[in-house]
Each structure stands twice: as structure tokens, then as C-alpha cells.
Amino acid sequence: xxxNKIFITTGKSSKKVHNLRTTGNxxxxxxxxxxxxxxxVRGKGKVKIHEDINxxxxxxEKIMTRYVESLENPMAKWVLDETKKGNLIILEITPSxxxxxxxxxxxxx
Length: 109
Fold this sequence. Notes:
The protein is 39% helix and 38% strand. By secondary structure, it is of the alpha+beta class. The chain has a single domain, classed as Electron Transport, Fmn-binding Protein, Chain A (Pnp Oxidase, Chain A, Roll), CATH 2.30.110.10. A four-stranded antiparallel sheet has the order 1-4-3-2. The radius of gyration is 15 Å and the shape is globular. The termini are far apart. The model has no long low-confidence stretch (mean pLDDT 92).
């Protein structure tokens, strides 16, 4: 995967996908950790909607491995199954602008 991209799995018939299809391929995003120390990234970017199941499976596997550590995890199994059925798709975001914050670093002073 390209390190300059953000990949998100989402429902094929979600409101998010509907809005992207009707309003264009630009979106704003915020990805943050809700637990202290608070940190995250927010920005704007172009989005590409990927519906090809064969394209989406390896990306979904990488996402699940990162966040739940094992493809044997029940959540990972469900997400992969829904991706294989075509119910979940991948959004590929190419950021044009972003900013980050990490309150843990400011508390270390």
C-alpha cells in the first residue's frame, strides 16, 4: 500500500458513499484516538471508491491485521466476509492537506 494514502473500509450502500457519488470526490477527514494522550490527523483529500472485490481483499486484510492483530479475530472474519460478498468497499484517500496533533508530546515538557 502507498504510505501517502489512507484506506478506509465502509459499507457499499452507506450514506458516506452515496454523498461521495453525488457531491464529488473530495472529502474532509478526522482520524483520532479518543483515549489519552489524545492524538490524530485531520485534513482534506480526493477519494477513489474501490468496489473490485479482488482489489479490496488484500487491503482489508492489512487493515484488520493492524487493528485487531489477527485475521482469526471475529471482527476481522466478519469484515473480510462482508468484503468478499461485496457489501464492504474501500475508500482510498489521497490527502491534499492535513494537520496532526499529539497532546502526549506537549505533556512531556
